[in-house]
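Dear support,

I submitted the protein below through the web form. The confirmation email said the job was done, but the results page showed an empty box. After a refresh the structure appeared. I'm attaching both so you can tell me whether what I see now is the final result or a partial one.
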Amino acid sequence: MSVSISSPHLQAQVSENGAELVRLQDGVGRNLLWDGNPAFWTGRSPLLFPIVGRVRNDRIRVDGSEYELPKHGFARTSRFEIDEVGPSQCRFHLRSDETTLERYPFPFALNISYRIEDATLTITASVTNTGSTVMPVSFGFHPAFRWPLPFGAPREAHTIRFEREETAPIRRPVDGLISRDAEKSPVHGRTLPLHDGLFETDAIVFDRIESSAVTYGAPSGGSIRVDFPEMPHLGIWTKPGAGFICIEPWQGHADPEDFDGDFAAKPGVLLIQPDETRSFTMGITVSSAGL
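What the results page shows now:
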């Protein structure tokens, strides 16, 4: 089952499977989101919880015990309950149960809300620790936008423009883990020119990012701005030759190559106190103007 919300400028469809955004269209019906073609990648905009990326051997260690946890966690393959549906907003929830506790031994409540106002879709994830001990957690967004966007500009004209200059080195996944060695940033000032060669060795990981927003598009036609306030990491990824580009705001990332400690000590993990709630927000704004 899925639900639809809209404004005169934007329409979105969200599935109860993973509470995943599965369609996003502008005011005239042009598709902005990847269609999940299985020849490349079946995802569209999965939610990453309670981990982002991979952990070593797909297992986390908590108080001396190990728990098997797949890449990007289990929220993206879980069925959420629908709490509310209105013309321009909807809300879903996922609660811990016996199955989740076997893989992630922390009671939690995960609430996901979608809201459209004018040409902006705002997605907010709220994570509550419903247990009695400190809960380590990560969360990430993973939207895949069409590349090229359906505004007429060629694929090679598309870039990602950062809010600020990004001079810090980047990291790359190595067997799913974050590389120990860094690479020079491919961002030229504030601009990342997009081409398949960037992704021949997998995703680009900004683990020291200055920006809290980027704008994706071409000089002519429309563009998409992605805002991610207070999310300290960003991944950018595609499969060479595919018709999508993922712009992924994260709190946390995969295990570093040299990390082999307790999950609570994993770089990028948040520690949430009992009864505390932490929220993560991403805004997607569609503009008729190019970069």
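Response: this is the final, complete result; the empty box was a page-load delay. The chain has a mean pLDDT of 97.
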